[in-house]
Design goal:
two-stranded antiparallel sheet, about 70% helix
Length: about 300
């Protein structure tokens, strides 16, 4: 199976799991769950879910357990997109080719939907169905909290907002910002399979290192799409980062140097997977996919 077919199969499987986990309740509070479902089930590449499933397969982890972790990561990712699109953040009216959550519903409902997806991600990880060993469940919760909190995604978003008002910002600070904002959650997705499989330190380190460098390459590719992409293909507005004066490696290095840097990161990320021999073939392919994608 090639990587695009494998990603499509994974996306379908995790969407079914998410749909089941996000059942609509009775009563007026169902509105917030409708907003959660609108954002979480509204398409997307499901890259993070794919990384969870592929890393879990390296250690022969139960597919049902891996799908629950994959769903939890996608719930958390959906929360971050809802909040990113808010007028107080990136002020984007379009996401995945549809109106952003705050445009489809309203700002207050969007905030609540994001909050609920964030907390539900941890609830899913903590449930016994995710893994029979409570230590594994606790480790998953801890690792995701670190990847998404002040030392990860939230901290990176804060740096991103602060950078808009800086007169200048060097490549090392931009790399730190992007590692926190984007790469840390991808690192968790890669390492989650090793946590589920109770793998040793060497395997976990290889997956974490792969995720970090692939995640940085992913963000450069995203920034290139903001400049060169077509919004009808990407499903979100283009040119917003440049207009807002966002700190990106594309702005710091130039388009061609940034593209070359992304390709170098992909090559480096793939070398970390030599630890797993041919079993990590699809993970190597998806690293190349993230820098060649058009959306």
């Amino acid at each position: 199976m090639d990587v695009k077919a494998a990603m499509a199969e994974a996306a379908e499987a995790v969407a079914e799991t998410m749909d089941r986990l996000l059942a609509l309740p009775d009563g007026p509070e169902a509105r917030v769950v409708e907003a959660m479902r609108y954002s979480a089930l509204g398409g997307g590449k499901r890259l993070r879910a794919f990384l969870v499933l592929q890393s879990a397969a390296l250690f022969s982890v139960s597919r049902s357990c891996a799908l629950r972790v994959a769903a939890a990561v996608e719930f958390l990712h959906a929360y971050s997109l809802i909040h990113d699109d808010l007028p107080a953040m990136d002020d984007s009216d379009l996401r995945r080719g549809r109106p952003s959550c705050h445009k489809a519903f309203d700002e207050a409902t969007a905030v609540l939907a994001g909050d609920a997806l964030l907390t539900y991600a941890f609830e899913v990880l903590a449930q016994e169905e995710t893994h029979s060993d409570p230590r594994v469940r606790a480790e998953l919760v801890l690792a995701l909290a670190r990847a998404s909190g002040t030392q990860g995604m939230v901290g990176g978003q804060m740096l991103d907002l602060l950078a808009e008002d800086m007169d200048s910002i060097d490549a090392s600070l931009i790399t730190r910002l992007q590692r926190m904002k984007t790469a840390e959650l991808l690192c968790f997705s890669c390492e989650a399979g090793a946590i589920l499989g109770k793998a040793g330190k060497a395997a976990r380190h290889a997956l974490h290192s792969y995720g970090q460098e692939m995640g940085l390459a992913f963000q450069i590719a995203d920034d290139l799409l903001d400049i060169e992409g077509d919004s009808s293909v990407t499903g979100k507005p283009t040119g917003l980062d440049d207009a807002a004066g966002k700190a990106t490696l594309v702005a710091a290095l130039g388009v061609e140097n940034a593209r070359a840097h992304a390709l170098m990161l992909v090559d480096q990320s793939a070398r970390h997977l030599d630890f797993f021999d041919d079993k990590a073939k699809l993970l190597k392919q998806v690293a190349r996919f993230v820098v060649e994608r058009q959306a």
